[in-house]
Amino acid sequence: MANTGDISRGMIIKLDNSLYKIVEFGENKTARAAAKVWAKLKGVDNNRSIEQTWNSGDNIYPVRVERKEFQFLYKDDTGYNFMNNETFEQITVQESLIDAPQFLKDGGGVSALINTETELPMSVELPDKIVLQVTYSEPGMKGDTATRTLKPAKVETGASVMVPLFVNEGELIRINTKTGEYVERVKE
């Protein structure tokens, strides 16, 4: 058990039988009243975002979480299947727990947050930037590079990404998985 003095950004706590990640926190002090600690929380096992206030020194219930490296294997009716890189155990995760499922590539590495109390995955995160091959793109017009005009392109995972006109079919591009935006062209 911990108290409000132990709160830190990224900590996962149990509140009302749900798990929440602390996004932001602070303290309000006034001359007349006791200090209050506030936090913005994002649901780990639900899609809620809430704000919570405690009296300074109140107990909180942190959940111990481990980050483990996994490899994406395949998707089927039960969900997305991953293999632990150290123990070779397989887990199945629902799409709602994955931060950017449209960019998952067979054999691609991800990191999963595992709740140590239940040994269940809480979320799966792709690397910040990944390299994918463009499988379909309309040809760009030669010399039309003065403006930052974008065109849609399909990548090998089936996702659509807006890319500059000079990107052609068959090229490798780097994509930001957090925003889904094109970053740069990659030389082979």
Give a written overview of the molecule.
The chain has 188 residues and is mainly β. It folds into three domains: 2-60, SH3 type barrels (Roll); 65-125, Nucleic acid-binding proteins (OB fold (Dihydrolipoamide Acetyltransferase, E2P)), CATH 2.40.50; 129-186, Beta Barrel (OB fold (Dihydrolipoamide Acetyltransferase, E2P)). It is flat, with a radius of gyration of 21 Å. The model has no long low-confidence stretch (mean pLDDT 88). The chain is built from no helices and 16 strands. The chain has strands spanning 2-3, 12-15, 18-28, 36-43, 49-55, 59-60, 65-76, 79-84, 90-93, 109-115, 120-125, 129-137, 150-155, 160-164, 172-176, 181-186. The strands form four sheets. The protein has a five-stranded antiparallel sheet with strand order 9-8-7-10-11, with no helix packed on it. Strands 14-13-12-15-16 form a five-stranded antiparallel sheet, with no helix packed on it. It has a four-stranded antiparallel sheet with strand order 2-3-4-5, with no helix packed on it. It is 0% helix and 53% strand.
Question: Secondary-structure blueprint of this entry?
Answer:
Blueprint: E1 2-3, E2 12-15, E3 18-28, E4 36-43, E5 49-55, E6 59-60, E7 65-76, E8 79-84, E9 90-93, E10 109-115, E11 120-125, E12 129-137, E13 150-155, E14 160-164, E15 172-176, E16 181-186
Antiparallel strand pairs: 1-6, 2-3, 3-4, 4-5, 7-8, 7-10, 8-9, 10-11, 12-13, 12-15, 13-14, 15-16
